[in-house]
Amino acid sequence: MPANLNQQPPKPTFLRRTLSVLIKAAVLLALLFVFDKLLPSISQQTQSFVVAKWQQLSLLQQELPTENSLPSPLPEQHLTDTWGAARSQGRTHEGIDIFAPRGTPVQSTTQGIVSKVGENTLGGRVVVVVGPGGAGHYYAHLEDYADITPNDWVDAGDIIGYIGDSGNAKGTPPHVHYGIYISGSAVNPYPLLQKD
């Protein structure tokens, strides 16, 4: 047998062992520090995600709006059924228009989760709230938005925006176009709104 096979590797010196332990401890402390700083935000993001999903599931289990079950987005204004009226390019009106002075607060008609705060060609500045039964509540032609962002929870009566004439309503009297979509199809919101 060769002599070098029976030899064991030299043992590290005390200084090398101590240095190795200190380096491992420093790396561990650095990792713990990073996790300590990141964990609250990761935990908060996870918690927000779980709460949002729970709220969505809860909303889907609730009943769709029924006749006279929703408050008006503009409680002090007269409601007129403008559903189905002729619009440009052969379209028909898929909602109702509620007129009020520019800047009048628009209230959510339902509890739900804000799914959109943004713009589109026809509606201009719009807000969409997904409410009970998964119904989409669409508010268009806004002048400005309230302090809301997608995934925020709103209750009926919360302010979501302000009356304007944005989108293809530019130059018309200020109003909100309010529409309801169930399973992707527009339904007449007028019968569902409470009238004074």
From TrEMBL:
GO terms for molecular function: hydrolase activity. The chain crosses the membrane at residues 21-39. InterPro entries: Cell_wall_metabolism_enzyme (IPR050570), Dup_hybrid_motif (IPR011055), M23ase_b-sheet_dom (IPR016047). Residues 92-189 form the M23ase beta-sheet core domain. It holds the Pfam family Peptidase_M23. Its EC number is 3.4.-.-. Keywords: Hydrolase, Membrane, Transmembrane, Transmembrane helix. The keyword Disulfide bond does not apply. SUPFAM superfamilies: Duplicated hybrid motif (SSF51261). It comes from the Bacteria. Gene3D superfamilies: Glucose Permease (Domain IIA) (2.70.70.10). This is M23 family metallopeptidase.
